[in-house]
Amino acid sequence: MEMMLQTQNLCKYFRKQKAVNNVSLNIEKGQIYGLLGPNGAGKSTTLKMLTGMMKPTAGKIYFDGKLWDRKDLSKIGALIENPPIYENLSARENLKVRQLLLGTDENRIDEVLQIVSLTNTGKKKAGQFSLGMKQRLGIAMALLGEPELLILDEPTNGLDPIGIEELRELIRSFPEQGITVILSSHILSEVQLLADKVGIISGGILGYEGALKQGDNLEDLFMNVVRKNRKAGEIHG
């Protein structure tokens, strides 16, 4: 299988604290990859390094077989933390601002509105959108540049069951469009339904990486990794 993204011994230190400690991820093209971990495990810090928002302290990132370069950001779409939405603008106007920034084709606005099912929102201001609609608009913004890799950090946070189901169907459709997805979450049941492969981070350490097979008990696997890393941290602490 061809690799979309790999990291080699990726580290991020904040003063003396190791937020990410020698993490080596292997994400294949066309996969939905679930990056799991408890809150504060180092997931968001890892994703911020992959999207150029933070500089690694050490280690390497490879994108599409080559050493990661800031130019690769044009092929990476990301929704990390809250969507960067102007509340007083409509969905289309929000996308227009982003499209002008990126310099992409204006026709792409209609395409992404259709992908995320926000075509019929008209002049309604984004501030009046439900949380699920705002998340979908954030994903539409991330899709504008036709990315090969889409990074979603806790995309179902705060959504109701209907919003979660709509988002799940949307995420499932991306590999068919040639988009590889990295999905970070601490909601195991959600990842179990979506991911082809998972990486489990705890205490900044990648304790497990492997394919997710039918019938696997993700909760047991997750708890074992978290406990093991916690013990290792106590021994070295």
Automatic annotation (TrEMBL):
SUPFAM superfamilies: P-loop containing nucleoside triphosphate hydrolases (SSF52540). It comes from the Bacteria. Keywords: ATP-binding, Nucleotide-binding, Transport. Residues 5-228 form the ABC transporter domain. The keyword Lipoprotein does not apply. GO terms for molecular function: ATP binding; ATP hydrolysis activity. Belongs to the ABC transporter superfamily. NCBIfam families: galliderm_ABC. This is ABC transporter domain-containing protein. The lineage of its organism: Bacteria, Bacillati, Bacillota, Clostridia, Eubacteriales.
